[in-house]
Amino acid sequence: MEPITFSAILFGASVLAGALGALLGLGGGVIIVPVLTLMAGLNIHYAIGASIVSVIATSSGAAATYVRDRITNLRLGMFLEIATTTGAVIGALVAGWLPGRVLSVVFGLVLVHAAWTMFRSPQEDVPAGVVGSPLATRLRLHGEYFDPSLRRQVKYQITGVPEGFGMMWLAGLISGLLGIGSGVFKVIAMDIMMRAPLKVSTTTSNFMIGVTAAASAGIYFLRGDIHPFIAAPVALGILLGTVAGTHLLLHLRGAAIRKVFLVVLIVVALQMIWRGIQGTIR
Amino acid sequence: MISYVLRGGVLLSAAVILCGITLAAVTRDTGYAPIQPHHLPDILAFHPAAGPGYFPTAPAAVLQAALIGKPYAIIGLGMLLLIATPVLRVALSVVFFLAQRDWLYAGITVFVLTVLLASLIVGVG
């Protein structure tokens, strides 16, 4: 195959992965890595390198809007970035000496978990009767925002700081190890452990994903895992696909087709685990 | 304000990467060892021969070669700009918290910025 044809195929697949990632609310990275490794036979280290730069592009570019900026809890995000960035640096360093088959198994497990979390119906939007913990008060993590759909100012308190912080460290580690945004883990930490409203969790998580990814992307770049031949078409494709997906497919959220895709994703994840155990992954 | 920096950074780096791709496609030259059809299996397999030598990985070398128009160095420069965008955002947040006289969060943000910059040092070593 001519190298330029291969690049074009990579670009096309990445546009689709970006659109699908936006549709499922999972991000393009989690979809393109299995596509590149299982279908294109690409070494997983290059796939992860290409994915991590796409994560920066999509989280920083597509996410920035005025409304989301208002809901994002800047202090909460910045405090938790202590955990995610340190986790991400360690994850990226560890990924450098782990064999591809091990990364494939871990990736499959994380993907099963993420797809399953998205498959279940979402939690209550604004948790009621949360009493903030003293530590969260000292760190001034509580906040408020105007909810456009509820049409009122929502005040909320934060609790479970140590648990949330620990979970965020894990989210950073996984992000650095596998080159994904690991937004699902970040939302679990803020939503379930720290009891932030879902809107605050998702917007703050989005704010954090780019910074977390930047902590590991530099390590990947210097190691030579970000190959221009692969990472350039993938990053541009995912960026384009995500923007298109966010604009065009928003109304599909919550529809039955979403669940079908999530089931497909779980099958793909099981395949990554299986191929990793077999040792037929590069 | 901060979100404009982010969007601007992403658009700028995407444009630079696109320039690099276009230049490589038009001139059929990467500026480094050329990628031939028979190299594809090596690249897919992460063969050492398909790594260093085909593109630059040291930031100084990337910048130098991008300035003289080597396509794969231009792509690399775009990637570095992309990675630098969230770092710039954190740096601006330090200024934001300092302006608010929020010393605790200025300190926290400086720590995060240090981790981001340190990652480039551990990455080399």
Offer a quick outline of the entry.
The complex is a heterodimer of chains A (282) and B (125). Chain A has 282 residues and is mainly α.
Structure description:
- The complex is a heterodimer of chains A (282) and B (125).
- By secondary structure, chain A is mainly alpha-helical.
- Chain A has one domain.
- Helices cover 73% and strands 4% of the residues of chain A.
- Chain A has 12 helices and 2 strands; from the N terminus they run H-H-H-H-H-H-H-E-E-H-H-H-H-H.
- Chain A has helices at 3-24, 29-39, 44-61, 66-71, 74-97, 100-119, 134-138, 161-178, 183-193, 198-223, 228-248, 256-278, and strands at 143-147, 152-156.
- A two-stranded antiparallel sheet of chain A has the order 1-2.
- In chain A, a hairpin with a 4-residue loop joins strand 1 (143-147) and strand 2 (152-156).
- The longest helix of chain A has 26 residues, at 198-223.
- Chain A starts with a helix and ends with a helix.
- The mean pLDDT of chain A is 87.
- Chain B is mainly alpha-helical and 125 residues long.
- Chain B has one domain (2-124).
- Chain B is 73% helix and 0% strand.
- Chain B is elongated.
- Chains A and B meet through helix 1, helix 3, helix 5, helix 10 and helix 11 of A and helix 1, helix 2, helix 4 and helix 5 of B.
